[in-house]
Every structure is written in structure tokens, then in C-alpha cells.
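Q: Got a minute? One more chain.
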Amino acid sequence: MRKTLVMGLGGAGMNIASRVKQELGCDVLAVNTNAETLANSSFDQRLQIGISTCEGKPAQSVHRGQLAAEESLEDLRYSIRGADRLILLAGLGGGTATGAAPVIIDLALELGSKVTLVATLPFEFEKPQRAAAQEALTKLEKKNIELVLHDHAKAMQPGKALTDYYNQASADIAADVEKLLAK
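A: Always. Here it is, folded:
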């Protein structure tokens, strides 16, 4: 039985989870609608959700991300059951994670898991994604979970290359997950 399940959800969540896995050496379950991204990943544990809803492609909307998780509820239940704690890694603002995270969180809580969502929020210039992330965050804040947020808009420094920023953000998130795992 696992005590803690670390799950990378969606494209950004899988990118974050890759860094966490590389730095901490912990097992991670990668969950995505995108079959190609999952197949090309280095994760040993993978779960494609929304096979009918998304047909192996990115969710591309919050609604389709939610439908994908609902379609795959029994597979998710099987993956989460037995975990005392779920650390969910996600980038809010896109489709898969923003739509699926609330469904997965509700399921984990129903199964008795303590949930921590470690999530990134989009940059200011990503206006539609930022609005979707803020709307999701408002709903997520009402759930009985711990939130660890990394706001790209607040952390970005003028003149800093995006790749440098993403590398630093990934390192910071890995450090947060290490602290969570030590609890």
C-alpha cells in the first residue's frame, strides 16, 4: 500500500513531475488525455484518461478535461485507493488539469486521502488561461485541501529568459514537494 501518491496531471503537471522524479527519485503517476505525451514520457506509471472524450489528444478545454476525468473515474479510483495522501502536480489554465483536478480531488477526498495541490498559475500575458485558472482556483479553495501555488505572473522577472524561469520554477516546485514528502 502506498502512503503518498504523487500524480503529474496534464502537460504542465507532467513537466513538473519529471523534474520532481529526477531530483527526488520518487515514483510518479503521470495522468493525461494526450496519448502521445504519455507514450513519450519517462514515467513507469501512466494513465490515459478520457479515451473516448479526447481520443488521445489534449483536452483543450476545461469542460473536456472534466469529462475526461469523469469518463475515467474507475481507473482513477483504482490508482488513488490505498493512498493516505495525494500530491497533485498541475498547471492550471489549460484543459486537462484545470478540468480534471476538481474531479480527482473530490475522488481522493471521498477515498479518505489528504490532498495537496501543487499548481502553477499562468503569466499575465496568457489572459484566457489566467482567467480559467483563477476560476478553477476559486472553486478549489473551497475544498478541504492544501494549496501550494506558484504564480508565474508574480515570479517572472523582466529580461529573464522563459527557459531560465521555467527551470527555476521547476526547481522550486521540486523543493516544495520534497518538504511535503518529509511531512
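A: The mean pLDDT is 93.
Q: Perfect, thanks.
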